[in-house]
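Input sequence (186 aa), recorded before submission:
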Amino acid sequence: MFSPSDFRRGLRILVDDQPYYVVSYQHFKMGRGKANIRTKLKHIRTGAVVEKVFSSNDSFKPPDMEEKKMQYLYETTGEYNFMDSQTYEQVAIPVDNLGDAKWYLLEEQEYKVLFLDNEAISVDLPAAIVLKVVETEPSARGDTVSNVTKPAKLQTGLVVKVPAFIKDGDNVKVDTRSNEYLERAN
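Predicted structure, token format:
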């Protein structure tokens, strides 16, 4: 059981017997009343975002979800295909369910695939992933004085703002939650 004090981004909970995960939350207290928690929740199946207010003494159950380590194989007509390395069973996840996770999937890599009622619904990514820069502008002389950024296209097609010293072929670490550059990786 979870209480609102356990809330964090990405926490999966059941609200009115529907599976959601917490997008954002904010504690607030009005005068002499009890503390309340204002939240934005995203439905795990449909992707619909709702805003709800909870009392500090509400409790929530986690949804009955299963995680399996699966290898990403390929993408075809809006579906991303994964294979269980133990049983060789394959599942397809629609691109709409993946959201921004699609920008971090590399072929033949293993990821945690989330199942709800034996249906593959999403991929649980680590906080940061290392990707290779495939295309970026060369930096101009003298741009190192200030904090100058430039767009860089990564190997999965994601475009992020990177510092001027990053060049084609460099590996960069990207935050999977905010799609932002973190650091250059070796």
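Checked by second reader. The two ends are 41 Å apart (CA to CA).
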